[in-house]
Amino acid sequence: MMNEIGMLIGILVGIASIVGVINRIQSSFLTQGHKRVEYYQKLQALCGSDANNNLAEILVILRLFTRAHLTNKEIEWFIWTPGAFRCLPEYGKKIELIDIDYKNNTFIWRGKFKYWYRRLGLAISLCLIYLITGIASASFILYTVQHFNIEKITEFTFYSVVSLFLLFIATYVLIRLYSVLPPQFLIGRKLRGVNT
């Protein structure tokens, strides 16, 4: 009887903690969205008709949304085109691949990436670099683990550093590959509130 009550209390405490975590996450998203709207309204007030007027303050606020260096025309477009501001973080990640079509208020492929085979070639080359560095890193790690000897600590340290370096390169390339692959979600996207 006591065991069953203890188990029931444990289950109730687990459920209550899960509900508390979900509630906290949901309230965090709501406050984040509210702050985003406040920053957007502040950007509109600062920009006015010309982004040059308060450029320093505008750039500071935009840093919260993207690391990309935007031109004044891009800043004004993202602020005043309905629905464009929500695409700003994604655009900032893929700025070297995509561009803005100001006439149609949408995104287009930039330069050489207009052709599908160039995009495919970039993705394949990044995949190959990722595979080669990942396999080399795993090989170095296995070699160092299998041949560990305290008397050869310098050799062990060298192989460990090389394997970690290759693992870092593989991770960087994987992140880069991820940023290359999904820009088609922005390309040709109909922005809310814009008739194209």
TrEMBL record:
Keywords: Membrane, Transmembrane, Transmembrane helix
Transmembrane residue ranges: 6-25, 120-144, 156-175
Stated name of the protein: Uncharacterized protein
